Amino acid sequence: MESRMFMIFMFVLLSYSVLASDTVEEIRKIHEILKQQQSQILKLQNDNKSLRAENILLRKDVDKLKEIDSRIDHTHFTAEGSADKGILPKRAGNPKQTTNVKDTTLQDISTVPASDLGVVAFSAYMSKNEDNPSSHHTLVFDTAQTNIGNAYNKFTGAFSAPVAGVYVFAWTIYSGDNGKTFFNVLVNNSVYGGTYGETDNVCCDTDSDSGTLVVSLNQGDTVFIRSFRQATTQILSNDSYGSKTTFAGWKLN
Question: What is the pLDDT of residues 210-223, one digit of tens each?
Answer without folding.
Answer: 899 999 999 999 99
